[in-house]
Amino acid sequence: MHRITEFFVGLLFGLGLLLSGMTDPAKVLGFLDLFGIWDPSLAFVMGGAIAVGFFAFALARKRTTNFMGGALHLPKSTQIDKRLLIGGLTFGAGWGLAGFCPGPGIVSMGSGELKAAVFVAAMLLGMVIFEIAERACSSRRMGA
């Protein structure tokens, strides 16, 4: 039952990305082009997502289990550190260069867009490089 629910939640998310235009790199880049022909429409998409997330997290903080009965583990850290800033800057640079972020990139790749497939491959490579670097750093910390 969990896999079926996960499938339908993912399907709903993907459809939302398609309907909102988040899978169209031109629309995303138009939103990021503040000094050219700026397209503010994605600000409404983001505002809607923030509103939904605000109420969803307020409800989640009052619960100990998710709606499927499993344990609910919310992040506890509120610290803004160097890793978070570098990750945010890297994410933003990738979004600005490609016009995709991970979810829309995967949805667009599923529709056969080559640029999205290249983006997803680069994203996966970046994840592998991060894991290798993270393991190297943690082994150095343990050895020091």
Q: What keywords describe this structure?
A:
about 140 residues, mainly alpha, 6 helices
Explain the overall architecture:
The chain is mainly α and 144 residues long. It has one domain (2-143). 72% of the residues lie in helices and 0% in strands. The chain contains six helices and no strands. The protein has helices at residues 2-20, 25-32, 41-60, 82-98, 102-110, 114-143. The longest helix is centred in the C-terminal third of the chain and has 30 residues, at 114-143. The model has no long low-confidence stretch (mean pLDDT 87).
Count of spatially separate domains:
1
What is the arithmetic mean of pLDDT? 87
Largest sheet data: none
Based on DSSP secondary structure assignment, what is the total number of beta strands?
A: 0
Q: Give the overall shape.
A: globular
Can you give the helix content as a percent range? over 70%
Q: Note the gap between the termini.
A: 47 Å
Instruction: Kindly report the oligomeric state of this protein.
Output: single chain
- Helical element count? 6
Pfam families: DUF6691
Organism: Comamonas suwonensis
Protein name: YeeE/YedE family protein
Keywords: Membrane, Transmembrane, Transmembrane helix
